[in-house]
Specification:
By secondary structure, the protein is α/β, with parallel strands linked by helices. About 30% of the residues lie in helices and about 20% in strands. The protein has a single domain, classed as P-loop containing nucleotide triphosphate hydrolases (Rossmann fold, 3-Layer(aba) Sandwich). The chain has a six-stranded parallel sheet with strand order 3-2-6-7-1-8, with helices on both faces. Strands 4-5 form a two-stranded parallel sheet.
């Protein structure tokens, strides 16, 4: 079994596909060496293929889903003609997310921090954390404090588009996924086992 001596901060960002896939790939690699991995998926409900396969790894892998059965957007962010395309969309006044969502994210984040500080995990992955920041479901100062005060032997991986500069400044590794071509723009819908 491997033990990490110095954990780094990794960021997978950009507009291209593969950020979550890269993070889960890192998790599966780490599990192969006996490391314990905690994944918290902001804004997701646990309906993806990686969530199904995660159950095969037992207690060394924990995946928390911190999504709601609806999507949120700020007023003015999505053109009216596109709003009909998104199922279960809740439009919020800018800066005022639904209170139940904010509480759910805060509770899950605090629980994850407590387990990390107690030494239960070697790797923490915060998938789509920047979206939670954007929608004021998580405060930037709370995230930065956790990054700065995490145990020195804990690897931290953050994913999502448009990662904030304050996070990028702290990162040891930044990978930007750049979209060159995507099947969706060719009219090909997302496929089970490939895209979700």
């Amino acid at each position: 079994m491997v033990k990490l001596k110095n954990g780094l901060l990794e960021v997978y960002t950009g507009d291209g596909k593969g950020k979550t896939t890269a993070a889960f790939g890192m998790a599966f690699r780490a599990l192969g060496w006996g490391l314990r991995v905690y994944i918290i998926q902001f804004m997701k409900m646990g309906i993806y293929g990686e969530n199904r396969s995660s159950k095969l790894f037992g207690e060394k892998l924990k995946v928390e889903y911190v999504g709601m059965p609806y999507f949120i957007a700020w007023e003015g962010d999505i053109p009216a003609e596109d709003q009909q395309k998104v199922k279960n969309l809740v439009i919020c006044p800018r800066g005022s997310p639904p209170e139940d969502y904010r509480i759910k994210v805060k509770n899950a984040f605090d629980k994850m921090k407590s387990e990390v500080y107690n030494g239960e995990w070697d790797i923490i992955i915060m998938d789509e954390v920047n979206v939670a920041l954007y929608y004021n479901l998580l405060r930037m100062d709370e995230l930065l404090e956790f990054i700065d005060k995490r145990p020195g032997n804990v690897e931290m991986i953050l994913t999502g588009r448009k990662m904030p500069e304050e996070v990028l400044e702290r990162a040891n590794l930044i990978t930007e996924m750049r979209e060159i071509r995507h099947p969706y723009s060719q009219g090909i819908p997302a496929r089970k086992g490939i895209d979700f």
